[in-house]
Specification:
Layout lengths: L2 E6 L5 E5 L18 E4 L21 H23 L18
Antiparallel strand pairs: 1-2, 1-3
Length: 102
């Protein structure tokens, strides 16, 4: 629920009210009792995520997600190759085939 700012046009009293978006604007000033309150237009606060289920990685770019998947898959390949003793094609050196010495 957002916090709205209010200002009384009669007495100048200003305050903030935490209320639902579906609630109507307040009209009666709590200080002077006049029905001259105006809701102030403010920049508001940034979005604040509270509780479990929100992570910094939820809103990553597509290029970041693609690179992350490649990194995870190569790490999985290296782990499985280490367990079986095999060398996968993705892990072979890029220097080319080795020459036998005569």
């Amino acid at each position: 629920m957002p916090t709205y700012g209010y200002s009384c046009q009669s007495c100048g009293y200003e305050f903030e009210q935490f209320q639902s978006m579906s609630e109507k604007s307040l009209r009666k000033c709590p200080s002077c009792g006049q029905r001259t309150l105006k809701r102030l237009i403010g920049v508001g606060a940034g979005v604040i995520f509270k509780g479990s289920g929100f992570y910094a990685t939820d809103y990553r770019s597509e290029s970041y997600k693609t690179a992350e998947k490649k990194e995870k898959s190569s790490a999985t390949e290296k782990k499985s190759a280490g367990e079986s003793g095999e060398v996968k094609s993705s892990e072979k050196s890029e220097s080319g085939p080795k020459k036998k010495s005569a």
